[in-house]
Amino acid sequence: MTTETSQSGSGRFSAFVPVLLFAVLLIVFAITLIKIGSNRLDIREIKSPLIGKPVPAFDLPSLNQPGARVSNAGLSGRAYVVNVWGTWCPECRAEHETLLRIAKDGQVSLIGIDWSDDAQLAQRWLQQLGNPYEQVASDVEGQAAVDFGVYGAPETFLVSADGVVLHKHLGALSWEDWQKEFVPLMVAAAKPVAGSSL
Amino acid sequence: MKLRYGWLLVIASLWFSLASAVDTQEAFTDPVKQARYEAMTHELRCPKCQNNSIADSDAGIASNLRVQLKALIAAGKSDEEIRAYMTARYSDFVLYNPPVTPRTYLLWASPLLLVLGGLGLAARSIVKRARMIDDGEAIEDSDSATEQGS
């Protein structure tokens, strides 16, 4: 008699197991969707294997200075930001104001990589919207873009003075993104140098 | 019946004509290299569109990667070297056939775990049912016993 009631009790409980599992699934899905909705999770984002590694070597023709080259060797010894863009990319238009503001702010130089683009269109873009870049490279073949692991322009990388990739931002960069993601890293990267000089 | 197969043929031919129109690169003259190229374009995942291989995608980056792939094969790189080249830039995400690493143990083990879990559940319900039948017989026995007794 006693065994019979305990068996039916566990039977009643196990009937709820699928319901509980379903509820857990629903909660996981809801949390994920809320994260996506509030931009805390980007499902397109692939973690860059470049972070903490030396910046990929590049040596490309300049977009706007005939005969000049833009290369990582020419930039060594100082921190810089690499921004991969193209005139075919609507999100690049969206972040252009932010880039101009960063350039005006003057904390760090912006290096543009114009990816798979028409040079004339790109030059007109910079003339009309303003040029935030200290140097702009023309990467028609996409060699540098592939070396940087770029897959969806715009993408923005922070490179330290000793040539290490510190951060990558995927998609249009807002001023808030810049303040939150890039500025603290630049401050942190600058500190050890200040400390060693003391 | 005949009509249905005809439809399949039309759909298949349309599908393959679409798929082949994406890749505009000139083929290798060496059939071995061309076969490797085709196999690799289907094994490498387009990082931009994420649910296409670079053979199927017309995204700019897929085309860039096909150019790189062709250059790497032409330069005599092995498939393993090419995979290393791609994952150094795009992580294991670019591989439709991810390597077994601590991060992918669960992924690779999941089919086995699911089968074992299913077997476990099946075993449990079989044992339970067997016990219920035994209990039923026992009840019948005791019933007949009481009947006999009364």
Tell me about this structure.
The complex is a heterodimer of chains A (198) and B (150). Helices cover 46% and strands 18% of the residues of chain A. Chain A is of the alpha/beta class and 198 residues long. Chain A folds into 2 domains: 1-39; 59-197, Glutaredoxin, CATH 3.40.30. Chain A is elongated, with a radius of gyration of 24 Å. By secondary structure, chain B is an all-alpha fold. Chain B has 2 domains: 1-99, Cytochrome C biogenesis protein (Helicase, Ruva Protein, domain 3), CATH 1.10.8.640; 100-150. Helix content of chain B is 71%, strand content 0%. In chain B, helix 2 packs antiparallel against helix 3 (60-74). Classes of the chains: A alpha/beta (198), B mainly alpha (150). At the A-B interface, helix 4 of A face helix 3 and helix 4 of B.
Task: State the main characteristics.
heterodimer, A: 198 residues, alpha/beta, Glutaredoxin, five-stranded mixed beta sheet, two-stranded antiparallel sheet, elongated, disordered N terminus, disordered C terminus, B: 150 residues, mainly alpha, Helicase, Ruva Protein, domain 3, 5 helices
Please write out the topology.
The complex is a heterodimer of chains A (198) and B (150).
Chain A: H1 2-37, E1 59-61, E2 69-71, E3 80-85, H2 90-105, E4 109-115, H3 119-129, E5 135-139, H4 143-147, E6 155-159, E7 165-170, H5 175-197
Parallel strand pairs in A: 3-4, 4-5
Antiparallel strand pairs in A: 1-2, 3-6, 6-7
Chain B: H1 2-22, H2 31-43, H3 60-74, H4 79-90, H5 105-149
Class of the largest domain in chain A in CATH? Alpha Beta
Strand content of chain B: under 5%
State the distance separating the first and last CA atoms of chain A.
83 Å
**In angstroms, what separates the terminal alpha carbons of chain B?**
70 Å
Task: Kindly give the count of domains of chain A.
Answer: 2
CATH class of the largest domain in chain B: Mainly Alpha
What does the radius of gyration of chain B come to?
29 Å
Number of domains of chain B: 2
**Could you give the count of β-strands of chain B?**
0
Write the element-wise H/E pattern of chain A from the N-terminal end onward: HEEEHEHEHEEH
Principal-axis shape of chain A: elongated
Shape of chain B: elongated
How many DSSP H or I helices of chain A? 5
- The CATH homologous superfamily name of the largest domain in chain B equals Cytochrome C biogenesis protein
Task: Give the biggest sheet of chain A.
Answer: 5 strands, mixed
Which percent range fits the helix content of chain A?
40-55%
Multimeric state: heterodimer
Query: How much of the polypeptide of chain A forms β-strand, as a percent range?
Result: 15-25%
Supply the CATH architecture of the largest domain in chain B.
Orthogonal Bundle
Indicate the percent of residues in helices of chain B.
over 70%
Poorly predicted runs of chain B: none
